[in-house]
Amino acid sequence: MRREEFVLTGAALAGVAAFGAGRAIARADAEPSIVPSPLLEPPTMLTPAQMLADIAAFADTLVEVGPDPFYTSSRAAFDVARTEAEESCAQPQSSSAFALAMGQLTAALNDGHVSVINTPYDWNSPVFPLLLSVDYDNALITVNPHNLQVPAGSRILSIGNRSADDLVSRTLAVTGGQTPALRRAFARPNEILYLLDGASPNYDVSFVTPMGVAGHAQLDAGTRPTFHRRPYVFTLTHDAIAVIRYNMCYDRTAFASFLLQAFTRVRDDCARAVVIDIRNNGGGNSNVTDALWPYLGGSPCEGTMQIRCRVSNRLKREYGPERYAEIYGQRALSAQDGTIITDRESGKFTLETTPLRATVPKFFLIGPNTFSSGNKCAFEASLCRFATLVGEETAEPVDTTGEVYLLALPNSSLRVSLTTKTFSFDGYANGQTVKPDIVAPRTVRDYAIGKDPAMDAVRQRLGPSSCPTPTG
Question: What is the pTM of this model?
Answer without folding.
Answer: 0.86
